[in-house]
Write a structure and sequence with these properties.
two-stranded antiparallel ribbon; alpha/beta; 8 strands; 266 residues; Rossmann fold; 44% helix
Length: 266
């Protein structure tokens, strides 16, 4: 029995070391991603505060995207996120944040069906194809960039660069470790089936469910719709969602799954 426990401990230790090494490698790869000029930037959504404003992680991404736009390197900002609960629309919060800082509405594209990395990649790739774009800037955390690039490559977008907030927080340790199984899962699923359905990887939400009963929303299966202030579909008379009737950029938010837990995504 003692010998068995000793072997079990050594095996666990080796796996832990490999896991940490993989997280460090993924993070380094993200830090090395270039930031070339692009046709537009994709800003990945993240958690919101209870008042509907961006939390620190998302605010950092938006600040980076704002500087990119002001420098002329990201003329269009594609804001992609999900709905965390009633009144907690990530894309609406991102839009309000950037409008308040001087970004014109005409430069913002809203995708409120970007519930996870692969869903965002597919939505953005469709927009790029429809508008003849080829170069995209991915705005997210450094440890998330490799998986984001993997997802975009899987949907046929090879010219990617990246930007990330130049800050380190203790939550990054957990998030970088979380990226290891997430990246491996993406790599395997997309290698065997490039048309795999998007899925969310939220271990904390699963843990919280044990105590609160909160359910994570399933990724939308329907073909996503994108919103733009000058969208021809909006001019054709599409009605905004009743929960966001003040903004035409929410003409596509009806029928999306709601998550009352409000757990942020990586």
């Amino acid at each position: 029995m003692r010998r068995f426990l000793s072997r079990l401990f050594k095996t666990a230790l080796v796996l832990a070391v490999l896991w940490v090494c993989a997280a460090v490698y993924i993070s380094i790869q993200g830090l090395r991603v270039g930031d070339d000029r692009s046709d537009f930037a994709v800003v990945f959504g993240n958690g919101l505060k209870s008042d509907g404003t961006p939390k620190a992680t998302l605010a950092g991404r938006l600040d980076v995207a704002l500087r990119c736009f002001q420098a002329g390197n990201c003329p269009i900002l594609f804001l992609s996120g999900g709905i965390d609960g009633p009144g907690l629309d990530e894309t609406n919060a991102m839009q309000d944040y950037l409008l308040a800082r001087g970004v014109p509405a005409g430069a913002l594209i809203l995708d409120n069906q970007g519930d996870n990395t692969l869903a965002t990649a597919r939505n953005a790739a469709r927009y790029m194809k429809e508008h003849g774009l080829s170069r995209v800037m991915l705005v997210t955390q450094y440890y998330h960039l490799p998986r984001a690039q993997l997802a975009f490559e899987a949907v046929g977008v090879s010219q990617t660069s990246g930007l990330f907030p130049p800050v380190f927080r203790m939550i990054d340790v957990y998030s970088s470790l979380r990226e290891v199984p997430a990246y491996v899962t993406y790599a395997l699923r997309l290698a065997f089936n490039p048309d795999s359905e998007p899925m969310s990887f939220r271990p904390w939400l699963s843990f919280k469910k044990l105590f609160t009963g909160c359910q994570a929303p399933s990724p939308p299966r329907a073909r996503p719709s994108l919103s733009h202030r000058h969208s021809s579909l909006w001019r054709a008379g599409c009605r905004p969602d009743r929960h966001h009737s003040h903004s035409p950029n929410h003409a596509w938010s009806r029928g999306l799954p709601h998550n009352s837990c409000g757990i942020p995504r990586g």
